[in-house]
Amino acid sequence: MGKIAFGMTTSLDGYINDRRGGFGWGHVSEDVHRFTQTEQEREGLAIYGRRMYETMVYWDTADQDESLAPSIRDFSRVWQAVDKLVVSKSLEKVTSKRTRLVRELSADDLRRLKAETDPGRRSPLRTL
Question: Is residue 95 part of a domain?
């Protein structure tokens, strides 16, 4: 049985985005990328809402940009390897690999995903 872990990036004053709704307010150092990469490597399934998915889908191709630092390209490859579930009623389709779109996700769905997730990183997306 897998574990459920919640991750949230916020500024010191408790916000995740700026006044315009953007996420570009924070500088992510190489150390932060490496830490996040280590955490991401342990995930069997990442669950996103529409707006966070639209931000994170950047990582589906970032590893192809040779002008980026190796730590950024490495994180991109790790992000691509994790199964992703996007919960949205408004998103038309997902464009990244290993990603499935659902319109809703109930507490029972989460319980089943948790029970069916192998701690060794096998995702239960096929059952949803």
Answer: yes
What range does the domain containing 86 cover? 1-117
- State how many domains the chain has: 1
Q: Does residue 126 belong to any structural domain of this protein?
A: no
Q: How far apart are CA 98 and CA 94, in angstroms?
A: 10
Contact between residue 83 and residue 123 where contact means Cβ atoms under 8 Å apart: yes
CB-based contact 84:48 (threshold 8 Å): yes
pLDDT digits (tens, 9 = 90+) for 80-106: 998 899 999 999 999 999 999 999 999
pTM for the whole structure: 0.79
In a domain, 122, yes or no: no
Distance CA 10, CA 5 (A): 16
Question: Domain for residue 11, yes or no?
Answer: yes
Identify the helix (H) or strand (E) that includes residue 40: helix 30-41
d(CA 114, CA 1) in angstroms, rounded, equals 6
Tokens of residue 9, six digits: 């990036």
Strand pairing of 45-49 and 99-102? unpaired
